[in-house]
Each structure stands twice: as structure tokens, then as C-alpha cells.
Amino acid sequence: MTAGPGRVVELAGGVGGARLAHGLQVALGSDLTVVVNTADDVERHGLLVCPDHDTVLYTLAGMEGPFGWGIAGDTSAVMAQLGVYGEETWFGLGDRDLAAHIVRTARLRAGARLTDANLGLQRSLGLAATILAMSDDPVRTQVRTSSGWLEFQDYFVRLRQEPEVLDVRFEGIAAARPTAEVLDAIETAGLIVIAPSNPIVSVGPILAVPGLRAAIGQARATGTAVVAISGIVGGRALKGPADRMLASLGHESSALGVARLYAGLATAFVLDPVDRALGPAIEALGMRTLVTDTIMDDDPARARVAAEVLDFAARSALIVG
Ligand code: FO1
Predict the structure, then answer these.
(1) Which of 63, 95, 190, 225 has the most CB atoms at less than 10 Å from its CB?
(2) Mean pLDDT value of segment 151-165
(3) 181 by DSSP, 3-state: which?
(4) What is the pLDDT of residue 3?
(5) Torsion-angle region of residue 73: left (phi > 0), alpha (psi -120 to 50) or beta?
(6) Taking the chain, what is the end-to-end CA distance rounded to the nearest angstrom?
(7) Atom number of ligand 1 nearest to Cα 91
(8) Domain ranges across the chain
């Protein structure tokens, strides 16, 4: 029996990251820290909504909705009434979900940091793991389409990811600072896992926070394994528009295309059996590879993928010595 990896840090976006986090939480409990993308955050009806944080929150609490976000069985009486008042209702907020945005916004207005407002929600729902905002400073993803720059949720939800994405920028990123909690988590991590989330708009903003990529590089230089999991399987995104986005931004829409984005950062890469033939090209980027089924449709699959990633990291560390 080998010792566990100690603290594990997962960099995560929404649904894919949340599913892996759920599996990791089963194995690690409070040794898991999830650093979430906040560049999808959006102000709706005067309230701050943090989709990636909340998706991980509800998933770790075992209460996520049928599409992966929101709360299972939630109702939409407030949205219906907002529609009566002439408000836009394309971004659907459930009644119980709204409570989180009300509490978060109130605490922020009272002077709390985003990190602490979110930690309060996590404590109330009894999470074992910790979820940290990548930064307390506002960062917002914008995508350029043929009709100009759009706010991320405008593109993602209102326009159903239909327009081709010609460029991506993270407004506010230059002034964003990583929090002390995030830097401490990375410094003390025994393992860093990059979730099978969109590498451009989910993991991309996290790595773009000034100082964060360097902190991971420093951890890597002192022996911490950095394992990335492909969210592209057989050339298609497991969820969302990552495949089309990679292609329209000039990257290869494949596990190899994802691995190239993490070259120099990840020490190991997990790919699906259908992509086995890409293994040698990924290894040529300087990463060890693990080939395993990465689809996490149900709880046992999440636990299995998480356990395999942990086992792989432990074996890689033993081999590296
Ligand atoms: N995604 C949708 O496709 N439609 C929605 O109406 C929607 C509402 C929503 C409300 C709260 C929340 O936390 C997430 C929500 N999402 C919705 C998902 C979300 O905006 C995206 O999946 C992520 O931003 C991409 O990671």
C-alpha cells in the first residue's frame, strides 16, 4: 500500500470538471481542492451567477440538475414572473438555485471576497472538498463572431453556441490576481489534475491568471505530477462546443490538439481508447499517457475514472522515482 498523493488540485470548468471532481471527492474527501473558472460568471437580474463554481458545488453535493448544471427538480416560478415584468428569461435560473446567487451577491456587497462567499455556500451544503475561485478579481470571457464580440453566456446560452468563434479574449485578465488560497493549494499539491473541460474557455482562463501557470510550473519542477484528461474523444467534444472552437481557432480538434495546448505543463495525459493511435504523438510532447474510457455518465464511471487517474499518477511518480 502506497501513501496517497496528499492534496489533489483539480483545474475545472463546468460539467466535465464537476463529474471528475465528484469521482475525486469520493476517493479523497477533504484532500480535494477544485480551482474553478470564473470567466463564465455573469450578472443576471442584479445577481452574480457563477456557473462553473455552482455546477461543481451542486455536483459535489449530489444535487445537480439533469443537464449537469442547476439543481435537480428545481422549479422556475421566479423566471416566469420575471418574464411577466418584461425581463429577459433566456438564462434560466431555477427558484432554489436563485437562493445561491442572492446570498453570494449580498455577501459580496457587504464586502466579502468571492472566494469566501463561495466557501460559505459550500459549507452550508456540507461539501467534503473545497472549491476555490481562480481569482477574486472579475474576469469575463468574450468571443468574437462574424457579428462582433459577444459576452460568453450570450454566445453560449442565448445563441446556443451556434456562431463560429473567430477569437477569444478574457476581459480583466491582466489585472486579475490568483488568490492566496489558490497559490497555497498549488504549492502544497501532491498532484494537479486538469479536467476534461474546454481547454480554450474553461481551463484557458485559469491558466491565464497571471502567476498561475508559473505556480503550476514550479510545482511540476519540484516533482508534482500534472495529469490532463482529454475532453475530446474521437475528435468530438464530450459536451459543449470545444471541438468546433478548437477547429475555428486553428487547433486540431482531437486529443492530440488538446495535449499540444498543455505541452510543457502536463506531465501525463489521459485519452480514450478510440484515440489510442494518438498516444505516440502525445508522448512525443513529453507526456506519459494512460488510455482508458473517459466517459463519466454515471456515479460509478466518475469514481472509476478518478481512481484510475490517481492510480496512474501514483505509478508514474514511482516510475519517475
Ligand atoms: N446553460 C444553458 O444552456 N441554458 C441555461 O439557461 C443555463 C442556465 C444556467 C443557470 C445557472 C448556472 O449555474 C448554469 C446555467 N447554464 C445554462 C449552464 C452554463 O451557463 C454553461 O454550461 C457554462 O457556463 C459552460 O461551462
Answers:
(1) 225
(2) 97
(3) helix
(4) 60
(5) left
(6) 16
(7) 6
(8) 7-39+128-138+172-315
Residue 227 to residue 9: CA distance in whole angstroms: 10
User: Residue 233 and residue 224: Cα distance in Å, rounded?
Assistant: 26
Pocket test of ligand 1: the residue of 36, 60, 118, 156 to mutate, having most ligand atoms within 8 Å of its CB, is: 156
Distance (Å, whole) CA 300 – CA 281 = 31
Ligand 1 within 6 A of CB of 159: no
Residue range 40-59: average pLDDT? 98
The superfamily (CATH) of domain 7-39+128-138+172-315 is CofD-like domains (3.40.50.10680)
DSSP assignment, residue 197? S
Over pLDDT 90: what percentage of the chain? 94
Q: What mean pLDDT do residues 136-164 have?
A: 97
Q: What is the DSSP string of 63-125?
A: -B-TTSSSBTT---HHHHHHHHTT---SS---HHHHHHHHHHHHHHHTT--HHHHHHHHHHHT
